[in-house]
Amino acid sequence: MSTQADASLMVQLLQWHTAAGGMDASMALMAPGFDPDAATVQDRDVFVMLMLGETIGTFVKQGVLDAGLVYDLWAPGLMWNRVGPAALRQRDAFAVPALWENFEALAKGELG
Fold first, then answer.
1. Exposed e or buried b for every residue in 19-52, given b needs 16+ CB within 10 A?
2. What is the value of pTM for the model shown?
3. What residues have CB less than 8 Å from 79, skipping those under 6 apart?
4. Domain boundaries defined on the chain
5. CB 31 within 8 Å of CB 37
6. Which DSSP string corresponds to 35-96?
7. Which of 1, 20, 29, 111 is surrounded by the most beta carbons within 10 Å?
């Protein structure tokens, strides 16, 4: 069950995300012309979304943020579908299996 503290933290995360260009990133990632298979983590919009997703995923994994609130308020699976291919390519290129793992786990419903 989420608490007032969970809601406050989620609002702070969304404010941080917006300040980092997250609204523009979200719009760009959801645009009909966005191609997840051509995107890279060096694309600012992709990176901004990956940072939010990884941060939220980490907080959920560590028990700092309620998963139910996150799933009710945000669409991690949808966002992962847009940026996940770029994240997985970077993970393979760097040979770091843990890279972006918390966002991926959140998107797959494996946390919480």
1. ebebeebbebbeeeebeeeebebebebbbbbbbb
2. 0.95
3. 26, 29, 49, 53, 107
4. 4-107
5. no
6. -TTT--TTSHHHHHHHHHHHHHHHHHHTTSS-HHHHHHH--HHHHHHHHHHHHHHHHHHHT-
7. 111
